[in-house]
Amino acid sequence: MIEPTKRLIELFRSEVPLDSSIIQSYCDVIASSGDADDAKVLLEWYKKHAEDWQYVPILQVVMRCGDMELAAELYAYSFEQGRLRENAPDGILHILAYMGYPLPSEYIVDCVVSNDQDACLALLHMPYDHHYSRIVELFDQMYGQALFPELLPALCVQWAPEEQMVPKLLAWGKQASIDCNGGLVLGIAMYGPAQKDQIKQILWDTDWELYSNGTGGHWWAYMSMPLVELTFAELIQDLKHAFGLKDKVDRDDQERIVRNGGQAADASDPSKRSAEHCFDVLHSLLQLQLEHVPHPLRYVTPNRESMIDLYQQLFAWSTPHVDDSILGVIGNTLGIHHRLMERFYHLRSTMELVVRYEIERMI
To answer: What CA–CA distance (Å, rounded) separates 220 from 305?
Structure first.
């Protein structure tokens, strides 16, 4: 066992009240650095305290570090007569499928039809079989509606060719509620790197609203990036190109902007709303990158961009005379008193802590 696992077990045994965020943080670290031994001891602890919701994060360790023996143990504990036990926590179907455990496909499809997002994630780890015909029927019934099972479009890659389905999902996005359109983004991204430009266009499209607005769409947008091999470096470059300081505003010009109340005299051609939206999207996605959110699909290689490099691309000046960093671009486009200035200053402070941690890991 690794040291964080030993320490977490000691804390559990001490019966000292633990905030759920502390447990979650321990489990995040163990899931990324532990192995089956860590998963085994934590699964035993979970089974003894399954009625307590604060121990549910332990299952993430089991999912990412466990072996097939532990998957079989979790299945036996969570299922009865081929169906989930009534008190089973959310996520069990996804966890078992992620681990490669064979699940009854007919039952999983039943769950998808009942609008179970967890079952959709499970199916994305399972082979196509004849039960999928019911999923296709459900898709045909839901197509074009504003509200629908959010991850249903992600399953289309299992049966529909790219050239047929991607245009349909894009058209659906014009009608879909922003409460569900994250699944449409994921559905398009499931077709792979050929859809990179399409995903970028969707991210910058104000109608999709893929920023942190309470709907969760930005979360699935973030998860779509590695599927199409889209990097933050490309997104940052896009915004600097679209809204950058076209005439290289120097310090005298910047002082003049400040005297004018923080408003740029000559804003970029795209509308202010478009600029705000694009910077909001970038900020929301970078926040998730800072949180090291693991990908829910086992076969996806996560984004490994260095935080040091991203910090440089975002906040470094190319010359001492011009602030062409992302802060300079926002200030010139939207004004130095715009709410996004404060948000990116706060992001910079958080990134500085992560940069220091990244450097310390080099020792």
So the answer is: 19
Question: pLDDT digit string (tens) for 23-34?
Answer: 999 999 999 999
Q: HSE of 216 in the Cβ direction (CA atoms, 13 Å)?
A: 9
Whole-angstrom distance, CA of residue 217 vs CA of residue 221 = 6
Helix axes 20-33, 58-65, angle to 10 degrees: 10
Q: Give dist(CA 133, CA 117) in Å, integer.
A: 18
Confirm if 191 and 197 have CB atoms less than 8 A apart: no
Computed on alpha carbons and rounded to an integer, the radius of gyration of the chain in Å comes to 23
What DSSP assignment string belongs to 176-192?
Answer: S-TTTHHHHHHHHHTT-
H-only helix segments in the chain: 3-14, 20-33, 36-48, 58-65, 68-78, 92-98, 105-113, 117-123, 132-142, 162-173, 181-189, 196-204, 217-224, 232-243, 251-259, 272-290, 307-315, 326-334, 339-360
| Residue whose pair of structure tokens reads 């992620």 in the numeric block | 98
pTM: 0.90
Alpha-carbon distance of 62 to 74, in angstroms, equals: 9
Q: Which pLDDT tens digit goes with each residue over 159-194?
A: 999 999 999 999 999 999 999 999 999 999 999 999
Distance from C-alpha of 177 to C-alpha of 213, rounded to nearest angstrom = 13
Output the CA torsion sign for 189, 102, 47, 63. negative
